[in-house]
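User: Thanks for the earlier help. One more: Type-4 ice-structuring protein LS-12. Can you show the sequence and predicted structure together?

Assistant: Of course, both are below.
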Amino acid sequence: MKFTLAIALLMLVISHGTESASLVKRDVPAEIEKITKYLQELSSMLTTTTAELVEKIKAADLTSQAEAYLQEGKAQVQPLLEKVQAQLKPLTANIDEKLKPLSGPILSQIQPLAASVEAQVEDLLRKVMDHTKALLPPQ
């Protein structure tokens, strides 16, 4: 009897195991589909991220190249600028010396005109303020 009971129990375990295996077999395609979808999403995300990183590296490389070109250009132009400045100093000093005697009479003629314009602008502003105050409602 014990032997029969053990065989029956063994048969029950085997049949239950095959049923659970068949249930697992039915769930496997769904799990495989989920894993496949996850791997595809991961792959597309990695591809996108890699492309973005490559573009950023190219942009950084272009920026560094542009900065290098600017530095080279500046290094080439700097000596020329210094030479031009050195040559222009005597010329500007000469022009300054020639214009100083002329500036006195010109300034004496411009000062009355500037004072007149200033007075007219102040008068105009005063009139605008008076008209603006007249438009405001009484408080």
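User: Great, one quick takeaway?

Assistant: The radius of gyration is 46 Å.
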